[in-house]
Amino acid sequence: MAKADTSEDREKMGTQSRGNWSWFFWAIMVVHCVAILIFTRGFLLTRTELPYHSNCSDIRSSPCLFDSDTNLNNNNNNQSRSDQFCWTRPAVNRLVIIVLDALRFDFVAPSTFFEEPKPWMDKLLVLQRLASERNSSARIFRAIADPPTTSLQRLKGLTTGGLPTFIDVGNSFGAPAIVEDNLIHQLVLNGKKVVMMGDDTWIQLFPRHFAKSYPFPSFNVKDLHTVDNGCIDHLLPALYEEDWDVLIAHFLGVDHAGHIFGVDSMPMIEKLKQYNSILERVIGVLESQSGPGGLHENTFFLVMGDHGQTLNGDHGGGGAEEVETSIFAMSFKKPPAPTPSEFDSSFCQLDLDQKNMCIGSVQQLDFAVTVSALLGVSFPFGSIGLVNPELYALAGGTWDLKGPTSNCQKQSKLGEWMGNYVNVLCINSWQVKRYIDIYSASSVIGFSSEDLSQVSNLYAQAEEDWSSTKRLLLPEHESCNASSTTFKRQIDAYFSFLSSVAELARSKWTEFNLGMMAVGFGIMLISLFMHFFAIKMVSKSSGLCLPSSVDSDFPTLFIFTLFMVMIRALSFLSNSYILEEGKVANFLLATTGIVRLRYSIRENKRLIEAVAFLLLISILRFAIEVGLSKQAATSAFMNANPSWSIGFSISYHLSTCIAEIVSILALIVLACMQYKTVADRVCCGVYKYVIVATIFSYMLIAVHWALESNLVDFVLLLQGVRRNFIPRIIYAIGFGQLLLLVLGQLLEKETTLNCARSLFIKTVAMLSACSSTVIILSGTQGPLIALACIIGGHSIARLQSVEHNMKDKTPGISTSNPLSVIQWSLLAVCLFFSSGHWCAFDGLRYGAAFIGFDEFVLIRQAILLTIDTFGFSHILPVFGLAYLVSCQDLSGHQTDQEKFLIFMKLTQMYMIYGLITATAVTATVLCVTLQRRHLMVWGLFAPKFVFDVVGLILTDILICLASTYYFSQVKNRDVPQNQITEK
């Protein structure tokens, strides 16, 4: 028998009920964090980094030849540094490496090598001229990097000779010191002095290795000149000094110009012209001292990129433009012996002067071991690269042959080169085989026995051939009748072994812990069931009806909504659909819009909203197309692509001005919307001040964009701190608005407003507080995306009551419409892609992190980058979800029961939204589990996983904050007595 509760019991149980649902959001966030951490430990494991280092004495255990006079311990200070060498006889004495960050291959190669000349081509003419005129001692190479193509990954790969590991991408903004064996360590170990200048990432990777260093901050992508000017100031004077063996100068201007302006832009072209001038001066100094007895008589010169970049200036993925960079190599001694045609990968074509030019090909994986061989130091322990024959041949004629050589070698320059090279390959193969054996024994999983058997057989075959080849290289062998065929056969055997190891490592390097991955996936499934049962419990405890009991259309809509969620989730199983995720979301959103249009026509209601919603989806479809082409329609895009227009022949400056004027007009429209809310007499207290502050922020944003554009010319205001003054004010206003809203929560008094209207005002105030920061970080496209968000949200809110005609039923009693929530979620996805983002690290707009700031501070820049990336897709949609509930009934006075049900409906809506997000992420987890051996796992599936799980955790955090913000309005007395009974 039920008995009525006392007022005290009702208040106690009502508070407990609300507390339980708030606790659920925090609990589900913890569950997601645990699941993601466990799965990540199983999926994104790094390659096992072995703590071993190569030493000079190790060569004694190899089957290869080594000079008995070599200083094995390398500690004899009486021996001159030029005579010291370790595993191989040094081919060069000094090495100058100039790294041009994000150097595309077509920056260096002549335009005649491409189908169509572009404005950025043929700017590094000095390199093309030398490669053409001195093709025996200077050559351009197409260098292929391994993705991911972030700078840290590439520098680590270049110096260790190993393949990158995906999880290192997270360290790109705070590089840890490299602990495994590497080229820089081996240079220092062998008494070589290394001087570095430029990008300070080198100091983070190698903190105690350089004899001299001149680092400059590298993360301010708006700064095109600080790092480059620092390199120029120290590079030329250093070329006249004798106290170094290896000099590294890392320029960053091209990389930063690409990020901000794109490849086809005047700042990029000016940078390339500046580099051409610098390289001319550097080469002039080296040549002037390259004579007999000169300081650079035996200096090897390299100009290289660490990775490429897309036309939009991005990098990080595995696209051809990103992985293809260039290396220019030049020797200043006598012309070396030519590379045998069997080992020459060059392709030749006429250059701009109609001269035949040949361009070679090299893997960046081979860089560390090739440089080690040229300088005569032991190879990095974990290197799996191959000593490149073409790079090696460029310096192959520069050996000071002090050791014993055969008469055959003395008579034949080609025989000399092949004899030295085959012995270097023997050492190279022995080192790689040693590493593979130790790695497989030390690592948790290592390589499979079948793979190891195949590799061992190839090495055994090469070693068997070596026993006969070795005799041809011994000093006592005086016969010159031996054909180079023996050397070529031996080189082919080593090539087969080394290429097989590299292919094996690329396909199976990462160790997957399937047990931890299964546990993580299982916990994600449990979280979905938690969401589902929580939604049912909210419906049951609050008296909200189930979909099947409202009318005949609701079961169909409920099934249709589930179908939309599952279709999007299952699309993640295909790499093609992940690439087209924005289009998929837009198609599904359009499908739901057509369904809504059907009900609007049937009920003859909200036809304008239904048509406007479909029109908005069409516009977003076009914006997503632009985003998918990695050319977002921003002012930076206009600068990089002045010929782009929507079917009109408009000049560059006019189109830029129109884009900027349209953005400012959109800001004015947004400000008018805010003013209309303020003009409403029900908007009072702190909420009114918050909205007024947003209007002021919009005015400041318009002024800031006008100052930075060509519309007005205030040059003095764009310099130094003044250029950053307005963004900082906007950040401060936004932070103050959030504090004011928190203070308003604490001081909120009883109000005569109806509950729905009060919830509406709180929603608008929160969105206003967040919007100004999101818009200024998004650039001039920000107001347009914000308008799309408002129009789409308003249309969804107005259309959600059409299907079941709520006006004819008891207000506030029906359950939340899941179709509206899935539309809200799909709209958020479309906004992410239409704002120029995509799920890859080259989809991050790093320039947004420096709006208002020039110096790099990790936490601050990470926060700004997060707001820019997830502002329109996560932050505003989560806080704006309350609008779907608040706009259902903005007039009249609600009873306590109706107020309580409004907030229970909002709770249910947040649970449905969380369920939809968690379902998509669970599908992503399943996808990367099934596709862990896919060719695109690191280039596509892993970045998608990272973006989704970060988005899920951010969504959980925002839902928790939103529930705290919105649900505080419901009072204990709002809990109706008939909702709390005791059996």
UniProtKB/TrEMBL annotation:
Coiled coil: none annotated. The keyword Membrane applies. It comes from the Eukaryota. One of its GO terms (cellular component) is endoplasmic reticulum membrane. GO terms for molecular function: mannose-ethanolamine phosphotransferase activity. One of its GO terms (biological process) is GPI anchor biosynthetic process. Pathway: Glycolipid biosynthesis; glycosylphosphatidylinositol-anchor biosynthesis. It is found in: Endoplasmic reticulum membrane. CDD domains: GPI_EPT_3. The chain crosses the membrane at residues 23-44, 514-534, 554-573, 607-624, 644-673, 685-705, 725-747, 821-841, 862-885, 910-930, 945-967. SUPFAM superfamilies: Alkaline phosphatase-like (SSF53649). Pfam families: Phosphodiest (PF01663). Keywords: Endoplasmic reticulum, Glycoprotein, GPI-anchor biosynthesis, Membrane, Transferase, Transmembrane, Transmembrane helix. It is a multi-pass membrane protein. Belongs to the PIGG/PIGN/PIGO family. PIGO subfamily. This is GPI ethanolamine phosphate transferase 3 isoform X1.
